[in-house]
Write a structure and sequence with these properties.
This is KGG domain-containing protein. By secondary structure, this protein is mainly alpha-helical. It has six helices and no strands. The longest helix has 21 residues.
């Protein structure tokens, strides 16, 4: 029986998959880190802030469409645990100070009155539930 595979053309997808598999067999983690670093540097040289904002927005929208609240709670918890393991009290004091400064630059007295009222109401409900 003749081998019909020699007459069959390989699709672009199949060629890409086979090439990727061969590359994975022949290279280690350091190789991928290096080409990723080089690619990141080249991208940074060729694109501005608007480019990164746009791809970040698109990525965020795609993630939101594909994940639910539990997903975000889980990654938030994991991120918080990892941050807590790697940073001390001074780190949290510094980011709190910076956040407070940025917030005060962007909001007026009405904003603080509104969030104060919301916080007070939440505390009152919490006490009522106890």
């Amino acid at each position: 029986m003749a081998n019909n595979n020699k007459d069959r053309k390989m699709s672009v997808e199949e060629a890409g998959r086979k090439g990727g598999e061969a590359t994975a067999r022949n290279h280690d983690r350091d190789f991928y880190e290096e080409i990723g670093r080089k690619g990141g540097e080249a991208t940074a040289e060729n694109h501005d802030r608007d480019f990164y904002e746009e791809i970040g927005r698109k990525g965020g929208e795609a993630t939101a469409e594909n994940h639910d609240r539990e997903f975000y709670e889980e990654i938030g918890r994991k991120g918080g645990e990892a941050t807590a393991e790697n940073h001390d009290r001074e780190f949290y004091e510094e980011i709190g100070r910076k956040g407070g400064e940025a917030t005060s630059e962007n909001h007026d007295r009405d904003f603080y009155e509104e969030i104060g009222e919301k916080g007070g109401n939440a505390r009152a409900r919490q006490r009522d539930d106890e």
